[in-house]
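Supplementary Text 2. Reproducibility record for the structural model of the 237-residue chain.

All settings were left at their defaults, and a single model was retained for analysis rather than an ensemble. We include the record here because the model underlies the residue-level annotations in Supplementary Table 4.
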Amino acid sequence: MTGISVVIPAYNEEKYLPATLKSVEAARAAFAGESEVIVVNNLSTDRTREVALSLGARVIDHEVRNISSVRNAGLRAARFSVVLAIDADCVIEPSTLTEIDRYLSGGEFLGGSLNLRVESPKFVTRLMARALQWFVLQIAGHNGAVFFFLRDEALAIGGFSEQHLVAEDSVFTHAMRDRGRVVGKKFGRLNHVTVTTIDRKDSTLAQFARLAPQVWRMYRGRAVDKKHFDYWYNPKR
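Retained model, structure tokens:
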């Protein structure tokens, strides 16, 4: 079906999910086409499921604690031909769905990334985020895991790599670019549409220094012990 499915993975997101869903609803209201919102509830122990339902989202329960697997569950459940994948602590602009539809309607692209802005009261955190985003932009062509794409083309590459606990966004970008060369389309970047997120982990330079080598190893396809990614996968976060 023609339209846009917004897929949002969520693990214990009752605090942040309302702002995300309200921004999505504003974008849906401004969009002339059909759309839906899917929240993939990933073993939440708080009121994530209830909050999502109360705000009009379709909720899918998924039990595997792997961000790629969660996103893929939403991708498979999507009813529409275009998918926008964002996180549960993101706020999108009202024009987002309209801009995505316009970008894809020419037939030149099979998808792309949006611009991600990280908000934090700490200057050092904002500086770290910008430095990391610049680096990722150079090697992978995106600056954060906020993507839109043709559902069938993403399914053709197997969705997001479930072998990658982190850096799955960069692996996905490379795979979609390769797919684009096969089908004669491009995987681009809609950088004038901004998605805002927050630093909710109180990031420090020391944390970044410990994590960066492990993220790089996983990005390069090398074996990494999951314990290094407690920053993302700690069930108590």
